[in-house]
Amino acid sequence: MAGKFCVSLTHALDNPDKATVGFVVANAAVASGKETMVFLSTEGVRLSQRGFADEIHEEGFLPLRELMDNFAKAGGKLFVCSPCFKKRSLDEGKLVAGAAVVGGAKLVEFLSDGSPCITY
Fold it and tell me: What's the pTM value of the predicted model, to 2 decimals?
């Protein structure tokens, strides 16, 4: 469907450049009127925790926390891989605004109509 876009994000502090660029692209997609979803998996799930992204600021970009807040305010969806989240013993009570812990089926459902997806 031409109206949807997915960013699969697998990094956080292990590669803050990729984490930042992932949200830059997600913001561009949602600003273009696309129903946009960021799917956090592997190390990316750490970004779902309040406060985690607060100190990540790659030169030349807005701070990651600001990019994430802008994405949520624009109506972007933030889905967090449940097995990855559980493996890292993260806290559902500390999820950032708009985040939801979901199974892989949610990603498959979103992409099942041929929606484009880019991975960082």
Answer: 0.95
